[in-house]
Design goal:
Blueprint lengths: L4 E6 L5 H11 L5 E8 L5 H8 L4 E3 L8 H13 L5 E4 L8 H4 L6 E5 L11 H7 L4 E8 L9 E8 L6 H24 L3 E4 L2 E4 L2 E2 L4 E4 L2 E3 L1
Parallel strand pairs: 1-2, 1-4, 2-3, 4-5, 7-11
Antiparallel strand pairs: 5-6, 6-7, 8-9, 9-10, 11-12
Helix pairs in contact: 1-6
C-alpha cells in the first residue's frame, strides 16, 4: 500500500477548502496524512478545523518580524520541521518571498478564484463581472515567486449569469473549488501529476493547457 502523501495546509481564513481536503480524506478519496495547518491569523477558522481533527497547528504573526522575507523564512523553517511532501495554500492571503519558496519548488500549490492568467490578486469575482466575462472559475497552480503566476494545473469553469453580483458568483463557485482542489491533490498523491522543466506533467506527459473539471473528474 502506498505511503500517504504528507500535506501541510496554509490558510488565513475560514478554511472551507481545507475542510474539503479533510472531507476527501475521510471519504477515502485522498490518501494523505495532514501533518500541519499553519496560519498568519490566530483566529483563522482553518485552525479550529485542524484542532477538531487532531492535526497540529502553527500560528506565526507577521507583526513579530521586521519584514516579509524574515517572516516567510521563519514560517517555512517551522513548516519544514513537520516534513511535508506537499504544501497546499488554501486561502493563504500573503505574497511569499522568493527565497522562502525555493526549497519548495514543485511541492507547493495554490487555489485561486479566477481562470488564470486572468485576474491575479484580489476581487476576482467583481473584476470578472465588470469585464463582462461570460465565464468565470477557479484555478489550481504551482506556486512561484510571481503572484498567482505559477504553472496552472487545473481549472473549473462556470457561466456568469445575468444580473450576477460578486456574492452570488462567489457562492456558486465555492462548491466547485471544493471539488477541484482535492481532485488535484489526489492526482499528486497518486504520483500522476508533477512539475518538471517542461511544465506540468500529467501521467508522465506534459500538458499543453490546464486540466478541466468535468462531472467531478479532471480530464485533459
Amino acid at each position: 500500500m502506498p505511503t500517504p502523501l504528507r500535506i501541510a495546509i496554509l490558510a488565513s481564513g475560514r478554511g472551507s477548502n481545507a475542510a474539503a481536503l479533510l472531507a476527501a480524506r475521510e471519504r477515502g478519496e485522498l490518501p494523505a496524512e495532514f501533518v500541519l495547518v499553519a496560519s498568519d491569523k490566530a483566529d483563522a477558522g482553518a485552525l479550529q478545523l485542524a484542532q477538531l481533527a487532531g492535526i497540529p497547528t502553527l500560528v506565526l504573526d507577521p507583526r513579530d518580524y521586521p519584514d516579509r522575507r524574515d517572516y516567510d523564512l521563519a514560517l517555512f523553517e517551522r513548516i519544514a520541521e513537520h516534513k511535508p511532501d506537499l504544501l497546499v495554500l488554501a486561502g493563504f492571503m500573503r505574497i511569499i518571498d522568493g527565497d522562502a519558496l525555493k526549497p519548495w519548488a514543485g511541492r507547493m500549490i495554490n487555489i485561486h478564484p479566477s481562470l488564470l492568467p486572468k485576474y491575479r490578486g484580489l476581487h476576482t469575482h467583481r473584476r470578472a463581472i465588470k469585464a463582462g466575462d461570460a465565464e468565470h472559475g477557479a484555478s489550481v497552480h504551482f506556486v512561484t515567486a510571481e503572484l498567482d503566476g505559477g504553472p496552472v494545473i487545473a481549472q473549473t469553469v462556470l457561466r456568469i449569469e445575468a444580473n450576477e453580483d460578486e456574492n452570488s458568483l462567489s457562492a456558486r463557485l465555492l462548491p466547485l473549488e471544493h471539488q477541484l482542489l482535492p481532485a488535484v491533490v489526489a492526482l499528486i498523491a497518486a504520483d500522476r501529476l508533477a512539475l518538471s522543466e517542461e511544465g506540468v506533467v500529467f501521467d508522465r506527459e506534459p500538458i499543453r493547457k490546464p486540466l478541466r473539471m468535468e462531472d467531478g473528474t479532471l480530464v485533459r
